[in-house]
Structures are given as structure tokens and as C-alpha cells.
Amino acid sequence: MVGTAETSAGVSAAQPSPGERAAMERAVDLARRGPAHGPNPRVGAVLLDASGAVLAEGWHAGAGTPHAEVAALTAAARSGADVRGATAVVTLEPCDHTGRTGPCSRALIEAGVARVVYAVDDPNPDAAGGAARLRSAGVDVVGGVLAGAARELLRPWLAAVEQGRPFVTLKLASSLDGRVAAADGSSRWITGTVARRHAHELREEVDAIVVGTGTALQDDPSLTARTADGTLTEHQPLRVVVGFRAVPGDSRLRGPGGPLLTLATHDPAEVLAALAEREVRHVLLEGGPTLAAAFLRARLVDEVHAYIAPVLLGAGRSSVADLGVSTIDEAVRLRPREVRPLGPDVLVVADATWEGRED
Fold this sequence. Notes:
The chain has 359 residues and is an alpha/beta fold. The protein contains 10 helices and 15 strands.
């Protein structure tokens, strides 16, 4: 049919207008205002009147707060805007379940919204179904609009929900020849201040930081997220130590920062299962080399953030322990996504690609 598009749910609907596409770009920007950490996705919403003018905007500010659609409806009500017959432009399919808050699909229906344009289908089986409910109520629904931009913003959350386990980012900070410490064990600091500042920003975005007992005992890290002046940020990730050795009572891990969780296991799958039970969506794996290798061997790494300093050590611990690779054909190859200079250092962000690899 001319002038229609097949939505992601397989239902024909009118093509999004230029104004709706612009509103979706705005909704993605609004979604970024929400926290990257936490069990809920970052979502933005824009309400348009029949002429395409903006009636109200909203975004999700974290678990327990109103979802983006409800936030936008509330903003419209406060301003006296009439949303009957309006179009709701949302980055994620409106939810259809009652959790900490009520279902957004019903809120939109009750408000009299006539059309919903969204970017990404909700993969959560407990929350999905909003598009179907809206259509059954006579609301015009279009999905898949600017889905690429929305999926990129939601990448860790989507992967965690789709895979049924936390999204894992492996962080490496090494010399140019792949060392994380000198021969005498010293490691502070291989990378410079700009790279370390960026690493703290990454910590602030994740739900949990995971290290092995070897790193906890040898390096005595605090595993906190800090600002440039050294103060703790508002969000502090869960600090997780994996292994069978106890964390000493005077460890910095028991000082100011996020809660401390010890997991008496060496099995990466068990670690992620325990964290999934706590609604952890994004894990930052900070080492050491043995734990990094265990997660890589188990194919439970989703992306790598490698901070590389222009330093040569020649000896000392490698950033990753034995992976069982005996020939170059068995190498774990990554797909680079970004290369960013950070002062004198370089950050390489790469996706793990396990498809087609044989055990």
C-alpha cells in the first residue's frame, strides 16, 4: 500500500512524518538525561499535537520514578495542554505491565492519545505487549523509527535483557606491550590522568565492578567512581570480589563507596547469574588477568575498553592471562567500534564477536 510502512510487529501503519522523526531525535536526547545505570532502560518521550507542535516532553529518571510517557503526560497536564488526539513519540515500546509503576500503554489510552511512534520493541517479556494493547484500543502505532540511534543508547540494557545476564565490559589498562604492572608489581600509574578520569566516568555508568581476589589483595583498590577533584559521585556501583580468599577488614573495598559483595566462585556464569538476581544490567570487569581470561574463555565478554599508554615495560604481568590460544587462527578477534585519544593515551573500544568461533 502506498504511504504505509511495515512496522517491527508486522502491522501496516502510516509512515512517520518529518516532524515525528525530528521528535524521535529529541526523544533520544531526552533519554540521555536518565541514568545509564540501574535495572530500567533510558527512555525519552515527546508529545505532539495534530499540527506537529510539541505539547510536552519527558524522560525516565530511574527505577521507581514515572516512565517517560507518564512524565510527558504529567508535564502536559501541568501546562494545561490537551493531549486528546495527540501523538506520543517514544524511544522504547510503551510497557504493558505493572511493576514499580503502572503500564504506560494504558496511561496513553486513558489520556486519549491517538498515535504512538516508537523506536525499539521492548524485549522484556514481562513488559512487552504495549504496542498490541494500543492497537487493540484503536491507537495508530508505528515502530522501528530511528531504531539504530535508540538501540545504541540502550545497547547494554537491551543486551542484558535479551541474553538474560548482565552486559559485560572488560576494562584493560596496559602499556604498549600489554603489561598491567612492572616486574616488581608496581602499576600506579601506567595511564595518565585523562584516561583515568574517563575510566571513572565509565564506572559511574555501570551497576557493578568485578575483580578477582588476587587484584583485591595485591592492589587494594577502592573501586569507586570519583569526580575530577576526587570526591565520590552520587552513584556508586556495587563492588564485587570473586574468589575464595577473604577480603581483609582494613581493605579499601570496605571503605566509602558502593556495597561490597563477595562471591565464592571462579565460574563466570555463576558470577553473572548472582548479579542478574540483583537486577544488575551492566558489569565492568576490571581484572585481574586471570579473571579477564576466565570471562573471555567463557565467551561472557560483550565489549572491551582498552586504555593503552605509550609506555614499554618489557616484563611484568600481562593484561590477560592464558586464553588457551595456541595458533594465530585461534586468536580472540574483536570488532573495533571507537578509537579515542585521551591525553597521551589511547582508548580502543571493541565488540566481542563470538559468532562462528569453535570451542
